[in-house]
Structure formats: structure tokens, C-alpha cells
Amino acid sequence: MTLTEFHSQLDNILELPSGTIKGDEGLENLPAWDSLAVLSFIAMADEKLKVQFSARDIAACTTVADLARLAGDRIS
Amino acid sequence: MNHPYSLSGKRILVTGASGGLGRAIATLAAQMGAVVVVHGRNAEKCQETLRSLAGSGHSMAVCDLLGGDLSGWMKSLAGDGGPLHGLVHAAGIQIVRPLRVLDERVLNETMASNVTTALMLTKAFRQRDVCAGGGSVVWLSSVMALTGQPGQAAYSASKGALVSMCRSLALELSAERIRINCLAPGLVDAGMGGRLRDCLPPDRFDAAAAMHPLGLGKPEHVAGPAVFLLSDAAAWITGTTLTVDGGYCAH
């Protein structure tokens, strides 16, 4: 998955217009980043990146860039 | 042992017995005198369960419950070791998916793994060559059949289906002296419940845990009620769902 596609997945999860997430956002500045969004992100990573994150992994992230770094080489 | 709670003289198949609630049920059933058939998908974990059981005569059977000939499989289990007096269906899956990311594939997979297997196993159990002229079937449902949580729509649908199906089947199978009941456990901090701790945000898990007045459950808390339903002490109980939840549903 490319970084652009990753941001697009986040747009879907947060139910934002396509192209909203640019990658430099702080998660606490995204009103829709709630526990349902966290669950949805974990589900997306499982299905599309084939990686299982725990809620603890996500809790350690404070920015969208942190989430992308978590995915490591699964994002090109 | 010669009292109504004993399982002495009974042969019980427990699915999903490679860990969690299934393993605890198999363990207590053996302690209560049952001969247990340990089922799971992981041979090594089934072997661990088998080795830990009190008594003798137990066996294991490793297979996927979907897509195969369950009727033939259960006939061969009965042919090899004798008829079955009870079936506990503890195998199942829980995929947490808020609606925005829930798709038909996950819903279908959940329903197949949790509901289709229950029905097909029970269909296989009632064969004349399999069950010993009656018996007790126990399906592991969940409090998620009776109440809800975000992200649990697919799981709730599957566990709710068990509660409903159980009632119709109880009426249908009573003439065959087969009782069928559901258990609805609350959050148990082991097995599937333990894995839930990993995928739920900490505040959500803690909130769910706090809703259990008696605290989070242990597998043995569910094993006792399962063994009770298998026993002759539950001879007049069928078509019901026994909630075993530390008070969660009392809210």
C-alpha cells in the first residue's frame, strides 16, 4: 500500500472527504479519531496490511505519521 | 460418583477445547467422571488439553468444523469410542468490526463459524449411531446475544442466532430426549476474552470490565454451569439460555 492509499484509508475510517488526511495531523486534532476509529484502524490494518496491531500499539501513536511508521515496510 | 451432578458413564465431545472456555469445560467434565473427546484445530494445543485431563479413555479429534462431513466425522467418533452423551460447542470466532469497516465477508465468516457449525454439529449429534438415546447439547453463546457493544454487530448476530435456534431445536429434539441449551458468558479474561483486551482501546476494555459487578470471569466460572447442563441435575432444562456473567446483564 502506498502512503497516499494509507491516508485515503484513514479518510474512509474517519468518514472525511477523500484527500483530507495529508499525513502531518496530530490524532488529538482529529475529532473523529475516537475509540471506534481505533477499532476500525486495527481492522483495516488486519485486512489490508496483513498486520495485527494491538490497541496499546495505537495508543502510543500521537500523529498520523506515527500510524504510518507503525505499519513499517507495509507502506511503500 | 453417583449423584445427579456426576458425568460418570458419559462421553462428551467438546469443540474448541484447545484453549479458553473449551479447555476449562473439558477439564471439569473429566474431573466429574466424563470421558472427553477434545476437539480443536491446533493439534499441539489439543494434546496439551488431553494430557491435562483427569481419568482415562479420553481422545482428541482435530478438524475444521466448516466445509467437511460432520455427520460422517461424528459417526466415526462414536464408532471408535462409543456413543456420545453430550456435545459442548465452544469453538467460534469473534471479529471486532465497527459498521464502517464491517463487510459481508466478515459477517458471513462469523455466521458460518459460529452458527452454521452449531447447527451442523447438533444435526450430526442426533444421529442414531452417535448419541446414546438422548443427550445434552450446550452451545456457547455470549452476553453479546442479549446486550450490545460497539464493534460487535457481527458477533452479536451470531450469538443471538444461537439463543433463538436453541429454542426451536429444544422443541424439535425433546421427543428424542435430547436437551439443548445455551450458555451466555460475560467477559472472561482468557482465550477469546483475553484477545479482546488486545484489540479494544484500554478505556473501552476497562469500561466493559467495570460493568461486571463480580469482576471479570475465569474459564472455570463458565465450566461449572456447562457441566451442570450436561449432567442429569439439569434433566428438566431445555431450550434456555443460562447467563453466566458476574452480573453484567443485571444493569
Please work out how many helical segments of chain B DSSP would assign. 8
Q: Please give the largest β-sheet of chain B.
A: 7 strands, parallel
pLDDT averaged over residues of chain A: 91
Mean of all residue-level pLDDT scores of chain B: 95
Looking across the biggest beta sheet of chain B, what order are the strands in?
3-2-1-4-5-6-7
Helical content of chain B stands at 40-55%
Beta-strand content estimate of chain B = 15-25%
Which chains make the largest contact? A-B, 17 and 16 residues
Strand residue content of chain A: under 5%
Encode the helix/strand succession of chain A as letters.
HHHH
Per the principal axes of the C-alpha atoms, what is the gross shape of chain B? globular
Share of residues in helices of chain A: 40-55%
Largest sheet of chain A: none
Distance between the termini of chain A: 6 Å
Characteristic terms for this protein:
heterodimer, A: 76 residues, mainly alpha, 4 helices, 51% helix, 0% strand, globular, B: 251 residues, alpha/beta, seven-stranded parallel beta sheet, 7 strands, 43% helix
